[in-house]
Design a protein that fits this description.
Structural class: mainly alpha
Low-confidence stretches: 48-59, 69-81
Number of strands: 2
Helix content: 40-55%
Radius of gyration: 19 Å
Strand order of the largest sheet: 1-2
Number of helices: 14
Strand content: under 5%
Order of helices and strands: HHHHHEHHHEHHHHHH
Oligomer: single chain
Distance between the termini: 33 Å
Shape: globular
Mean pLDDT: 82
Largest sheet: 2 strands, parallel
């Protein structure tokens, strides 16, 4: 299931969670986060890629409601719309024949990854990527830098526990995005150390030999390889942008060298180099 918690792909997610999700959810082991738990229950049941918001009029009303929500990562409260959304979603997921294997991809759970791992005990595969390639992707897609350094929830619950340098006042957009990437990376590194059993691979290694490396990853994760996986990989190796799941494999490694200006590289490097190298990796 592709990014069930991504509000840019699924407009029902912030409605169900009671947040506009302009910040990442901050959830720690032991927290009671009922709607967030339902989202992941739904996802691990196999979920679905649809949306409840098919009406343009309803979507407009929901978008207006989202603008009024506080821009913080709280998902520990009940949303008025949540029970309705989740009763429909979970009933539909439970009514379907459960898949034999469910694989869920997320890029919005960096500050809640340990909670997900502890609560649902899935096999976790952490795909690391060169930080400047992540930055180039975010800049290309014009993503907001998340987490927001001014989010009081982040300041209270995350920053005191991780080695995150302060972000200078009036920092450039490039520095803001780089700082956000650094915080996510450090938080994931801490979660991986705490859990101790995550499978770690790099984006670059996977792209060096996609079929061979993917087969090795399947073996480590206890997944069964099939002809359909070969077909999927072959179909994915073609031009694509945005949220499309297709990319030309050879174009991806080192794309930052072609897309970022020297000023952007210098700004990003000055921020990222202040984070622990074991979380950020090499910036060469």
């Amino acid at each position: 299931m592709n990014e069930p918690d991504n509000p840019l792909l699924r407009r029902w997610v912030p409605v169900a969670l009671g947040s506009n999700f302009e910040a990442l959810p901050v959830v720690e082991p032991g927290d009671r986060a009922p709607h967030y738990e339902r989202l992941w229950t739904y996802s691990f049941l196999g979920g679905g890629a649809g949306t409840l918001l098919r009406s343009a009029r309803l979507k407009k009303r929901v978008d207006a409601w989202l603008q009024e929500r506080p821009k913080v990562g709280r998902v520990l409260v009940e949303s008025p719309a949540g029970p309705i959304v989740w009763s429909i979603r979970l009933a539909a997921a439970q009514a379907r024949k459960p898949p034999r294997v469910v694989v869920v991809k997320s890029v919005f759970s960096a500050l809640a990854a340990e909670w997900v791992a502890v609560t649902f005990t899935p096999r976790v595969v952490w795909v690391k990527r060169h930080a400047l390639d992540v930055l180039a992707s975010w800049m290309r897609m014009d993503f907001r830098p998340v987490p927001d350094p001014n989010d009081p929830w982040l300041q209270e619950r995350v920053l005191p526990k991780i080695a995150a340098p302060p972000l200078e006042p009036g920092a450039s957009r490039t520095k803001q995005v780089a700082w956000a990437i650094g915080v996510q990376s450090v938080a994931l590194e801490a979660a991986a150390r705490s859990c101790g059993n995550w499978i770690e691979v790099t984006h670059e290694d996977l792209l060096a030999n996609p079929v061979e490396q993917s087969q090795a990853l399947f073996s480590r994760a206890g997944l069964e390889w099939s002809d359909s996986v070969d077909e999927y990989l072959a179909q994915s190796n073609q031009p694509g942008e945005g949220f499309d799941l297709k990319r030309v494999w050879g174009d991806l490694p080192g794309r930052w060298r072609r897309e970022l200006s020297q000023e952007q590289i210098d700004d990003a490097t000055s921020v990222l180099s202040a984070f622990p190298v074991e979380a950020i990796g090499s910036l060469d």
